[in-house]
Amino acid sequence: MTMRARGRRSTALAGGLGVALVLAGCGASETSGGGEGGTTDASELSIDCAPYEEFGDLEGETVSVYTSIVDPEDQPHIDSYVPFEECTGVDVQYEGSREFEAQLVVRVQSGNAPDIAFVPQPGLLANLVAQGAVVPAPAQTEANVDEYWDESWKNYGSVDGEFYAAPLGANAKSFVWYSPSAFEEAGYEVPQTWDEMIALSDQIAESGAKPWCAGIGSGDATGWPATDWLEDVVLRSAGPDVYDQWVSHQIPFNDPQIAEALDTVGGILKNPDYVNGGLGEVQSIATTEFTDAGLPILDGSCFMHRQASFYQANWPEGTDISEDGDIFAFPLPPIEGDTAPVLGGGEFTAAFNDDPATQAFQTYLSSPEWANIKAQVSGPGWVSANTGLDVENLTSPIDQLAAEQFQDPNAVFRFDGSDLMPGEVGAGALWTELTNWIANDKPTQQVLTDVENAWPTS
Q1: pTM > 0.90
Q2: Which of 36, 165, 178, 256 is the most exposed place for a label (fewest CB within 10 A)?
Q3: Which helix (H) or strand (E) holds 64?
Q4: All domains in the chain, ordered by first residue
Q5: Which residues constitute the signal peptide according to the record (predicted)?
Q6: Cα–Cα distance for residue pair 165/46, rounded to 1 Å
Q7: Phi, psi of 89, rounded to the nearest 5 degrees
Q8: Which of 317, 332, 297 is CA-nearest to residue 380?
């Protein structure tokens, strides 16, 4: 990436629906930490309404949307619906909740399901489909997904071979944050392979500094950042096929390949010469909030921090996030091969009825036109794996880098493994045991065996 921030230009984009996106009068913007960034007023955007005529007269119809995306991230979503509402006459009613996962199930069971929900876990989607609550996506939505997403994304929105939910937003997790200015001053280069990254870590440690800082604290969800570390390394060391077998429990959780991967993670996180820069000893990783864990990079207490693209919002106001600035990120390097796999997450648009207005809106959200509109009304921290997204419409160079990873035809993508596992494991035993692995130095094999024993039998 060579872009610090991009000026936007008038654009006409044609997509699978034949919809033209028109952008008028947009200025340049600067990208900084703290979630700041230039955005476009939704009133400046319009779409060709013709593709939605096949859904019939929608004037006066309403579509309710239920999601875990809340203030302040909700407003760009709401703004991105304005062109669709003006085009079709549909009133989109948005409701965000921090209790989304629990309350969605309650609402479905009580007969009060929304028209559409943004489901972030494929496992939850499968549970809702098994209850008969979710209807298959319309053909127009499926056509968009076939054209604009990697096949793996469609699979995550499908259950038993039936396609239900189109991908929406995405986040790329396989990033290492660093300070370009600190690297330049010390004469360090961004590593391109895992071996180069370890050699760099050794070089930094030999200088008397700590190469890494980390934190897995997250309240009741403490431990989840360690799951991302493990998933990233399994994907790199054992490969995508073994990753799939592990996530679906076709091989046991304590398979030797998984143990090798966790020991590889331990070579960094449990190495007292490497961690925990500016924060304490190895055990401090378990009590350091993940939101604070990368900040020691700014004062030189550490040099690298592995965390997802969304971490950009945690840097202090005014931080120059660019490839030659205070902070930037590089892809976590491959262990095998030349191309680094991409670990990520995202949401899926599940519909609970097949009303024409619901289908029209679900189709709109699957289109490249919506992805480009959403990019232009959002600040830093949002990206989509929709290949029809023009990377230049994203306001953050980190988001642009993430989008390029998603759009790389040679990159292997896999969804966050813990989100695919049963809740008792992915959001339970795995969090707990990886925390014990760090906090109490619990042995690798015992950790993985205890997670294996927590896997539900049916």
Answers
A1: no
A2: 256
A3: strand 62-67
A4: 12-171+344-411 (3.40.190.10), 175-340+421-454 (3.40.190.10)
A5: 1-24
A6: 25
A7: 85, 5
A8: 317
